[in-house]
């Protein structure tokens, strides 16, 4: 290789090293922890006397993970007993608004502190071993309860171990379970329930926290319409019944408040993390016989007023100050929640009612003053000045001045009380809205540093590709035009939410373009839109297959839940689904058998035995997995008895056996490479068998309903190989097919589309590395397939490249150019739009996905795995280069 190309490859290597550096620098400035006031709150000294007496002395806080509002309040709900309590007035129902990101850790932070968590918690939520997100030094209602009775308050927790990470050394007794082991619907909840009878009889605790995970796991595995959903709701309703009966039976529970709530909801796919109405609308029910004194009951079940809005809608952060008032402790220091007005009538004294809201308002005022210190809060501004349009800070200052004047003239008692209460509540709500929407404390220097490093990586990539042969033709021009359009698209929230349409249209345009180019080459004619020639049928087949992948899974926001192949067609024709699944595994088995027989020279019998030993257990595992995941897809195939039989198979050990067999065959194939003395055809066969084994692994990590997509991929692969495309066309094709397949699998730029269902295949407990690899493989199965496909379809004779160019490094140069452009575009968009309304719901998740594409996919899969395959298989010698 010449010196010039060696220098450019060095620049390309440096550019790829700078990609993760830029991404991480930018992330540390974009996702910082929000500042908080340390210590515990104390009661403000007021002239109106002591704080109001508490209405309850214990709380049972029951979280049912992903408890969407309709799961409790609708006519299809399994919470029949809870609904009876709502009708009788012994339960007050609400729909709590959970702000994005709708995942467990930030939601628990919001519930316990009353504050708005940082979006960084999205990352920390998946790092189960992380301890940096602890709330040990923050003020929460748990810390306040523990501080009661001269610091002798006792708390007990059973369920999601997120609570143990957030509150170390807080609980007197606890038993945590992993929230990510989503294959388990029953044991994860039974492990909580087995402690309930004992704790209900114990009288030594002040707060009992139960966090059930099974309903969330059912959602991740099979969606909200799973046949397992209503029975799980009935099970949770049974726990509510048991607790309620104990509250009426045991004297030490007579003054106990039961809170039933969800930390978040779920979308129509059963996932969460984004801002769809179903994800942001968990149920919230306060239960106690005492509540009958202030409620005559409400209709239940009932209909939603609009998307999942049942009864009154409150902010999830309102739970913290409400518990503070009901149980008699100061509102946590960092709280932005507002006491729920429905509970005010529990206190007969109007002064007590005023104190509750005033103390809540004073605590929020402290945050307002710390955030907006330059405003005037002491009543010197004239009322006329406050009527003018003003900044949010000035608006809050004027509102507080009005409250201050009202308190000085009328106090909290007498006829002025109702006016004062309205003013206090209005101030709290407005301050909540303004403080919640205040821009994060971005580190602009880090944001700019990350952008500069990313631009440097882009420049180095551009220099490496400068005058590169693959960029000096129409293929390269098409590629550059599309990455430019993609970069521009990152500045529009609607385009980011519906990114799949960009790739679907570009892929269709690319197929049209290469068909024209092939026709011109075959016929040697100048008309640019000629469809005559041998390539026309292949183009039409590719276009038809591409159209099918578009309709496989509806994704994005606007069409989420619309009819598609997975959710409509397969559910109507499950027998046809399993025919295609069986065909996919049969194709893999045939390929493996042929490669073992011919490439490894093991004979037909041994080849067939190896293929059967690999693919039959893999197919059985998929049947057993689906029997536990979505049994309704298997009942038409084998009946209830057959499904029950497969449900008894050990999934963990079966998956481990499959992974071991695949790894063994990979080692055998690679080792044999160094002992076979035949020419290039044997080395090329090694690429084929490795790709087939990788496909079998990806099938294991894919939902059954998506497995037939691999039949489409294999047909596209066959056609692309037959077309003998140029290196640039191969690179662009695999890039476009990788992105279209990502969205065809049902993924999107929302955190809620992350599929956890296959993250624990072969794993019996949480292991951050194993689960991380399996999670990535299951969500990026399509792109991984096409990334490694490049080595199969690359031609042995390449006319476009200079004699000292390597096709692999040319391929990497093109893909790195796309990665660096997209990274710079997303960084600049996030920086420029950091005060945008959708910064946390659209642009921040997009940046996380960009990091995953840049570091996880591009560096580890495309460069790492692809480079290893290129080296093991003989480097450029494989492709006709010496």
UniProtKB/TrEMBL annotation:
Protein's name according to its UniProt entry: GPI ethanolamine phosphate transferase 2
CDD domains the record matches: GPI_EPT_2 (cd16024)
Coiled-coil boundaries: none
Lineage: Eukaryota, Fungi, Dikarya, Ascomycota, Pezizomycotina
Pathway per the UniProt entry: Glycolipid biosynthesis; glycosylphosphatidylinositol-anchor biosynthesis
Family, per entry: Belongs to the PIGG/PIGN/PIGO family. PIGG subfamily.
Residue ranges of domain GPI ethanolamine phosphate transferase 2 C-terminal in the record: 439-872
Primary localisation category: endoplasmic reticulum
UniProt entry keywords in alphabetical sequence: Endoplasmic reticulum, Glycoprotein, GPI-anchor biosynthesis, Membrane, Transferase, Transmembrane, Transmembrane helix
Membrane topology: Multi-pass membrane protein
